[in-house]
Amino acid sequence: MVTLLILGSLVPPLLLVLSLRNPFRRESVVRFLRTPLVDRGLFLVAAAIFLGKICHLGQADFGDCRLLLFFAFALLAIAALRISYGFLASRALAILQLLWANELLKAGMGYYGPLWLAAKLYAYCCVLLASYLTIYPYRLRDWLCRRARR
Questions:
Q1: For residue 72, what pLDDT is reported?
Q2: What pTM value is reported for the model?
Q3: Secondary structure percentages of the chain, helix, strand, coil, to 5
Q4: With CB atoms counted within 10 Å of each terminal CB, which end of the chain scores lower, N or C?
């Protein structure tokens, strides 16, 4: 659990550092994420993890409606795969980032030391970024490829 939290927290800065070194590498990363196999595969992984979390909802978290929620979100995921053909990888990365932030915030609940406050602040910043990229998924492509076009 701790290893997953540490790896999840290091992935966004590591990708940022790797992509800033060479602008043309960023464009190849975007092209790789836009391939249909990776695009749909990453979205399927994110949807499967989210549906797994729905299966394990507690009584206080709409546990009585688990089956209804599961089928509703499964139909939404299938519809997204059938109708939307692009930018699913960006949304999948945002979903995975939100799930990671949820685990980090649950792990730090009740701790108020300076390191935990910094980790929580980082998690909330990741939540804001993931929410923004879910609404505007093309902004990730624009941000990564901006310097490569100059």
A1: 93
A2: 0.76
A3: 80, 0, 20
A4: C
